[in-house]
Write a structure and sequence with these properties.
Blueprint: E1 21-23, E2 30-36, E3 50-65, E4 68-72, E5 77-81, E6 86-102
Antiparallel strand pairs: 1-2, 2-6, 3-4, 3-5, 3-6
C-alpha cells in the first residue's frame, strides 16, 4: 500500500463567483466546489474507483445514487461509492463540496 503525503499547505476559498464545477486543488484527493441553480441537475454518471464525500453547504439537493434518491439540506454529508450512477438535482440554488478519493 502506498501513502501519499502533502508536502506543503494549500488553501482555497469556497466563496466567490465561480459557477458550476471548480476544482479546488491539484492532485489527490480530487476536491470540487459544485454550484447548481434551482432546477439544474447533472445527468447520471459514474466515478469508477472513487469513494465520494458530498457536503451540501447551502440550498437543497436531491441526490440520486443508483436506484435511491436522498434529499439533502445544508450541513448534510453523505459518503458513497462512485461506481454507481450519480445525479444531483438542485431544488434551490445550491453549493456543495465534493471530495473524490481513490478507493484503491
Amino acid at each position: 500500500m502506498s501513502e501519499s503525503t502533502v508536502t506543503e499547505t494549500e488553501r482555497a476559498t469556497l466563496d466567490g463567483d465561480g459557477d458550476g464545477r471548480t476544482r479546488l486543488f491539484d492532485g489527490e484527493p480530487k476536491t470540487v466546489r459544485l454550484t447548481l441553480g434551482a432546477g439544474e441537475s447533472i445527468p447520471a454518471h459514474k466515478h469508477p474507483g472513487r469513494d465520494i464525500v458530498f457536503l451540501l453547504r447551502s440550498g437543497a439537493v436531491d441526490l440520486t445514487l443508483g436506484d435511491e434518491t436522498v434529499s439533502l439540506s445544508p450541513g448534510d454529508v453523505v459518503r458513497f461509492d462512485g461506481d454507481q450512477n450519480i445525479s444531483p438535482a438542485a431544488t434551490a440554488d445550491s453549493e456543495a463540496l465534493l471530495v473524490l478519493a481513490s478507493s484503491e
